[in-house]
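EI: anyone free to look at a 322-residue chain?
SC: sure, send it
EI:
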Amino acid sequence: MSADLETQVKVRPVPRRKAAPEHPALLDAVLAAPHDDAPRLVYADWLQERGDARGELILVQCRLQQLRSKPGKRPPQVKLLEARAAELIAAHQREWLAPLMPFIRSATFERGFLSTVTGDAGKLLEGLPLLAREPLEGLTLTGYRAALLDAVYRAAPHPTARVFGLAHARLKGDGYAALDAPLFSTARTVDLCGNDFSEPGRLARCTLPALERLRLTVGGLTDAGLRELAGAPFFARLTHLSLDPLGTSSALTSLEPLAAARSLRWLEGPFDAATLKHLLATGLRKLKLCYQPHDEPVTASLRAYFGPPAAPWEQLPDFELR
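SC: here you go
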C-alpha cells in the first residue's frame, strides 16, 4: 500500500455521536471484495442519497487511486482531490470514528473506508467485532503483553486485514506462541522488528499459513537462530524478507530455502557470494544490502565472484547497496 494513498488521522477523544447509517448488505459486498471499487461506489451512492459525506469521500478517494495508478505525469486533478479528501476527513472524522474511539489511537482512510488502525493491543482486541465492519488492510498492535495471550486466541480473524504490526512488542521465546492464534492465520505480512530473536525456536514452530512477508530487523538474530528459522513451516513461502543477522559469512547459506523470494533486505550482515548467486537464480527481483561503513570491498568482491561485464545482481530491477 503506497503511503500517498493514505490520509493519516490522529484520533482525539470526543463525545459519542449517533452512528452513521449502514446498509449491512452493501457493506458485506465491500468486505467480500475489498480490492474492488465497484461495491464501494454502490455504497457511496446509497450514502449520498441520505446526505452522508462519507459517500463523497469514497468517490473522491476511489478516483484518486485510479488517477495515481496511471503511468506518466500526475494529472492536475490529483491535487484538488487530495485537498477535498483532507477537507472531508477533517470535518467528519470525529463522527465517523466515534464508535471506534475507545479502541484505536490512529487510523488511515483509503478509498473511503478505514485502511489501517493502530492502538493498544488490549483495546484493539476488544474492539475487533466493530473493526470487522471496516475493510481494513492492516492492524498495528502496541503495548502487547503476555497477559493478553488468551484474548489473542479468542479473537476471530479479521475478514480483510492481512498486514499485522507487532514491532517492539517485547516478544521473546515462548511469547511467539501468540502468532499461532486464529487472528494471524490470514496474515500475509508481519512486522516483528525490534523483538528478541535470541531464542527463535517457538517462532520457528509457528505455522502462519498465509505469510509472505516478514520483517525481523533489530533483534539480535544469530547464525544459529537464522538456521532454525529456515526450518519454519512458513519460511519457504516468504516472498519478502528483511533481517540483520549477527554472525559470520555462513549466515546466507540459511536462506537457501527461500525458493519463493522476490525481495531480500539484508542489513549490516556478512554475506556469502555463492549463496547469493543461488538466491538470484530463484527469481529474486529486489535486493538491498546495507553495510556500515560503506564498504567498497563488498562491491568489489561481488564483482570478482560474478565476473564481467556486469554482475547479475547489478541487473536486478531493484538493487541497492549502501
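EI: Residues 77-97 form the longest helix (21 residues).
SC: 👍
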